[in-house]
Amino acid sequence: MTLMFWNDSLVIGIEELDEHHKQLVSLLNSVYSNFTLGADKSGLSSIITELIRYTKYHFSAEEKWMKDHQYPGIEKHIEEHSRFYERVSRFQNDFAAGNALLTLDLFQFLQNWLTVHILNTDAAMGRFAREERLSAHQ
Ligand SMILES: [Fe+2]
């Protein structure tokens, strides 16, 4: 089962980061389908670990992009990443310790966070990149 469908409104126009976002959606879907198919805790744990590892890699890539381009919204953006990352890694630890369960609410939260973050916070970076390209051609 698919939780989140990719669509072109999610494209921000920075190719490397768009590819990362597609990969994140695909990993999230893969956790979800394993969950709906009734995978056991260790199977779920390893795919959750993969999702979180990739999230960290992707956030670092975005943060590097913002530094390299002296992006003015960098602080607020990094803060959003940190808050989210803290929350999901806390869940990961709780899940591994047997103190938390995967729930539909959690999937809803993840899907919602990713969509809203891409459409607002990441898309603003995409607009900045476009303006930068335009002014370079003036
Ligand atoms: Fe981001």
Can you lay out the helices and strands and say which pair or pack?
Layout: H1 15-36, H2 41-68, H3 74-96, H4 104-136
Helix pairs in contact: 1-2, 1-4, 2-3
Bound molecules: fe (ii) ion (FE2).
Residues 62, 77, 81, 117, 121-122 line the site of fe (ii) ion.
Model description:
By secondary structure, the protein is mainly alpha-helical. The chain has a single domain, classed as Four Helix Bundle (Hemerythrin (Met), subunit A) (Up-down Bundle), CATH 1.20.120.50. It is 77% helix and 0% strand. The longest helix is centred in the C-terminal third of the chain and has 33 residues. It is elongated and about 55 Å long. The mean pLDDT is 96. The chain binds fe (ii) ion. Fe (ii) ion binds next to helix 3 and helix 4.
